[in-house]
Amino acid sequence: MMLGCANQRTERFCQDVLKREELMQDPRFITNQDRGQHVEALEALLEELMADKTVDEWLALCDSAGVPAGPINDFAQAMQDEHYLARGMVQEMEHPVIGKMKTIGFPANSQRHRRKFAAPRRFCPAHR
Question: Coil, helix or strand for 9?
Fold first, then answer.
């Protein structure tokens, strides 16, 4: 899962989501620079603290606390994601070798400028 915990959101995440406000007193994690210098320790600590709930449970807690967060999807999950589908990011095209296929489209779209793939990517010679 991806967390958007920069600045005051980090404090909100530690207090309201993790219920561990003492983490913000740890000298390794007080500022963004401190957290950046100790990112491995922070990630290990978060993995340990967050192991007891599912991603969906953590996402709900983050959402209720106003902390930006989202799942990290594999390809199959992305193809079924309601947001990707609603934004028209799942595109279907005809591939000259494998036939009809679905793929993920461009992430940067707007209402006026919908981008589509003109043609599928060619296979690498190693994959023929």
Answer: helix
Q: Check whether residue 8 and residue 23 sit in a common domain.
A: yes
The boundaries of the domain holding residue 82 are 75-118
From first to last of its 128 residues, the chain has per-residue pLDDT tens of 888 777 766 777 877 888 888 888 899 988 888 888 999 998 999 899 999 999 999 999 988 888 888 889 898 888 888 888 887 788 888 888 888 888 887 666 666 666 565 555 555 555 54
Total domains, the chain? 2
Within a domain: 31: yes
Alpha-carbon span 100 to 3, nearest angstrom = 35
pLDDT of residue 35: 85
Task: Find residue 99's DSSP bridge partners.
Answer: 95
* Cut 0.70: pTM above it: no
**What distance in Å separates the CA atoms of residue 91 and residue 80, rounded to the nearest whole number?**
12
Burial string for 92-109 (b: 16+ CB within 10 Å, else e) reads eeeeeeeeeeebebeeee
